[in-house]
Design goal:
Blueprint: H1 3-14, E1 33-34, E2 38-43, E3 52-56, H2 59-69, E4 87-93, E5 103-112, E6 115-125, E7 139-145, E8 151-160
Parallel strand pairs: 6-8
Antiparallel strand pairs: 1-5, 2-7, 3-4, 4-7, 5-6
């Protein structure tokens, strides 16, 4: 099977019909493992003001990230438990947006061929939308099984139009 055909099969399996085949073309579908996602936290009002993507593999870094994530919450939720000997945390933050109505999600995390690939979607209002002047700072945080591979993040941007 050619690389192009393998990439098309993988894209179909991942349910990312808008992604180009060049992002995964060097790897056959059977060489990737989709990791189980456990959502820890998702909010449009995080304390992360600049765009960020991270894989957190130790408790000290996790504490630092969590403090940033909930920094602007009056009633701060407790630090979620992560067993770093067998788990790690993946997070994606959009940073401060121009208006409200933005959201980010982590869609899947794959491991294979010596790397971790995190797919996320950034959703927000399009140019026809009138939204409030209050900005938001979307973040998504998931727990996945621990892996040591370096991570690559692929974010799909989706804008919805208003009537």
């Amino acid at each position: 099977m050619s690389r192009f055909c393998r990439a098309l099969v993988l894209i179909g399996l991942l349910a990312f019909p808008t992604r180009g085949s060049s992002q995964v073309s060097e790897t056959a579908p059977e060489q990737h493992q989709r990791l189980q996602l456990d959502s820890i936290y998702q909010s449009g009002r995080s304390g992360v003001v600049k765009p960020a993507q991270a894989v957190v593999r130790d408790s000290a870094s996790w504490r630092t990230w969590w403090d940033r994530i909930v920094a602007n919450r009056g009633n701060k939720p407790p630090l979620p438990t992560v067993e770093f000997d067998r788990e790690m945390v993946v997070l994606v933050a959009s940073g401060r947006t121009r208006a409200n109505g933005f959201k980010v999600s982590i869609d899947s995390v794959l491991v294979g061929n010596g790397r971790l690939v995190v797919y996320s979607t950034d959703v927000g209002p399009g140019s026809s939308c009138v939204s409030g002047s209050t900005s938001n700072q979307p973040v998504a945080v998931v727990r996945v099984p621990r892996h040591s591979e370096p991570a690559r993040f692929v974010t799909r941007s989706v804008r919805y139009e208003c009537r």
